[in-house]
Amino acid sequence: MNAPAYNFAYLDEQTKRMIRRAILKAIAIPGYQVPFASREMPMPYGWGTGGVQVTAAILGPQDVLKVIDQGSDDTTNAISIRKFFAKTAGIATTTTTVDATVIQTRHRIPETSLHANQVLVYQVPIPEPLRFLEPRETETRRMHALAEYGLMHVKLYEDIARFGHIATAYAYPVKVNARYVMDPSPTPKFDNPKMDNSPALQLFGAGREKRIYAIPPYTKVVSLDFEDHPFEPYRFNAPCALCAAENSYLDEIVTDDKGGRMFVCSDTDYCEGRQAAGHHGSLSAAPYKEKAGSHG
Amino acid sequence: MTTIAELPPGFVDKVLSAQSTFRSVMDAMARPGSVQRIVPMAGTAGPIMRGTAAIALTLFDHDTPLWLDARMSESSDVTKWLKFHTGAPVVQDSSIASFALISEGALLPTLERFALGTNEYPDRSTTVILQVESLDMGRSFELRGPGIDGVAMLQASIKPFDLFERLRMNEALFPRGIDVVLVADDAVVAIPRTTRVESKGS
Q1: Shortest Cα distance, chain A CAs vs residue B125, angstroms
Q2: What is the helix (H) or strand (E) element at residue B37, kind and residue range?
Q3: Phi, psi of A223 (to 5 degrees)
Q4: DSSP class of residue A77?
Q5: Mind listing the pLDDT tens digit for each residue in B25-77?
Q6: What is the ipTM for the molecules in this complex?
């Protein structure tokens, strides 16, 4: 083989040590964004360089890796990251949620409940929940130091004043362990309740912004809201067209230019598992059969 | 005088041993009170236990100022081993240390002498690695906090006896604070700053 010899899981050992130390502090201070010396990765920013670095720092030969992009195992981002680690670490990969020990995700939490032997690694574009309200890092850092989160409540209140309800649908801010307000990465707010009291460790990596943060297992994660406008997860009011699931997060897929559309589970592994178990939706394809006399 | 050739060795397989050790420490930190085992073994020097040696090889380098207790810093075996294998600079001033190595509880200084981080950067705090007698026998403790499903029980023989009383300062200081990693031979238990510990007598 003429391929260049990379270190196990691509990153050099000094970089891994630096990331590992940041991960330990992130776990010790739930929801606090630990700065780290993010490296250039062989993929562009926005393709999960933060998540990839966290995964590379924790991954061992015994691990089984699953990578999802918006719930799907089969999109370019998910496939290329899965192949990246299969190549540089020689580890086993899977698309089945329960079989994975490390799950790297872009913008979704799997529908299947996670268990204690799993680590969920999020790819994060903008880790600072206050960034769009206050552009200065010095100020947002001070606001976190003082736990001064009034501005975030004003933002949610402005939603109510304008639309009658909290219109934030993704990257919905949460408070971790009753202290730090944290951006759950742009997951749909449908997924927020899954972060609360999860048996799995949750790690967040932001490559371009050079931050790592964490939610330890069994930690209280509360979505910000108001007494008279409580947090509500949003979901299209329809069953999945392929597996008839009533409680999964759905993608809307436009099927023609006449307004036709279908709603399907965003979590492909969950949907395929349900179909294999005999659940069928309104648009499930029947096994292909040649119809008699259909030629011509 | 020890020459390089006589120094106890580091990990046989640096890359995978460090990964395995890190996962044990990460699991310990994520699930306070749970006893994690460190599998890969390296040589040890002087009073350094097997688990402590593996953690040092996994997490220390030239970026991590290191504070040693009197017994460790007086042992040239220890300082040479650490210097050769990790390159971590040993500092006299404990308030700038990333890590502190404490060979036994009696030598633990008051915790305020370590870096506690700032409210803006609470991560810039010392991680104290404290060697103890046992992490599966001894007094019973109840642990609560993030990472723990309700209550976790820990049986341990720990010095100083008032360690957990002293760590109560973490409650008032949060998000600043001290994170402690307890080591007994190959067993590791982490007590991050968010963990509340109560002694359950005998």
Answers
A1: 9
A2: strand B36-37
A3: -75, 135
A4: H
A5: 999 999 999 999 999 989 999 999 999 999 999 999 999 999 999 999 999 99
A6: 0.97
Strand B179-184 versus strand A92-93 pairing type? unpaired
Q: Which stretches does DSSP call E strand in A87-171?
A: 92-93, 102-106, 119-123
Search chain B and give the residue with CA nearest A11: B15
- Helix H segments across chain B? 14-30, 50-59, 70-74, 76-85, 163-166, 169-173
Cβ-defined contact of A25 to B123 (cutoff 8 Å): yes
B119 to chain A: which residues are within 8 Å by CB?
Answer: 145-146
Is the Cβ of B19 closer than 8 Å to some Cβ of chain A? yes
For the record, the structure tokens of B65 come out as 């100022």
What lies within 8 Å, CB to CB, of B123 at 6+ separation is A22, A25, A26, A29, A32, A34, A35, B117
Secondary-structure breakdown of chain B: helix, strand, coil percentages, each rounded to the nearest 5: 30, 25, 45
Chain B residues within an 8 Å CB radius of A61: 16
A81-134: per-residue pLDDT in tens?
999 999 999 999 999 999 999 999 999 999 999 999 999 999 999 999 999 999
Q: Which residue has the tokens 């307004």?
A: A259
